[in-house]
Amino acid sequence: MTQFPSLDWFRKVRDIYNADGSLHKGGGGACHTTAAFRVDGQDYLISFEGQKIGDIRTATKADVADVDFVIEMPFDVWKAMIKNVREHGGADQRYTLNSLDLSLPEGIAHSPADDQYRQDLFYRYNQNFQDFFDASARVETTFA
């Protein structure tokens, strides 16, 4: 079992995603962006490079200041989303990143540089990020 959140968890999901082209449903387009995923005060920096995911590492404040956008949710929402993905083999309609963004009062994505163009990459490539998290259905997960 791999604990969420952890660098190990994100890297295991990346390895599954990169190894299985059937997980790349993102509208057929290549995704080029660097994002931070903030979980319980810790930022994980992920580089999306075409149809693959490159580097994943914990991020410093300086790293986060230079990402295109940050996805941030309360820990209980992250946990519910990951459990839902595991249960259904992918997020159901209540737990997609898009539905969570629309349902939470402040949304889940923001640009640390307050740059709408960069934040828009979350919406443009949303399915790629969803495909990544849907790959987590194959990772046996425990929670901190």
Helix content: 25-40%
The SSE order reads EHEEEHEHHEHHE
- Helical stretch count? 6
β-sheet strand percentage: 25-35%
Structural class: alpha/beta
User: What is the β-strand count?
Assistant: 7
Q: Pick out the low-confidence regions.
A: none
Global Rg:
14 Å
Tell me what the CATH architecture is.
Answer: 2-Layer Sandwich
This entry's quaternary arrangement is single chain
- Average residue-wise pLDDT: 94
Name of the CATH superfamily: SCP2 sterol-binding domain
Question: Which term fits the overall shape?
Answer: globular
Layout of SSEs?
Layout (H helix, E strand, L loop, with lengths): L1 E3 L2 H13 L11 E9 L2 E9 L1 E7 L2 H5 L3 E4 L2 H14 L8 H7 L5 E2 L5 H9 L1 H9 L6 E3 L1
Parallel strand pairs: 1-7, 2-5
Antiparallel strand pairs: 2-3, 3-4, 5-6
Describe this structure in words.
The protein is built from six helices and seven strands. The chain has 144 residues and is α/β, with parallel strands linked by helices. The strands form two sheets. Strands 4-3-2-5-6 form a five-stranded mixed β-sheet. Strands 1-7 form a two-stranded parallel ribbon. It has one domain: Nonspecific Lipid-transfer Protein, Chain A (2-Layer Sandwich). It is 40% helix and 26% strand.
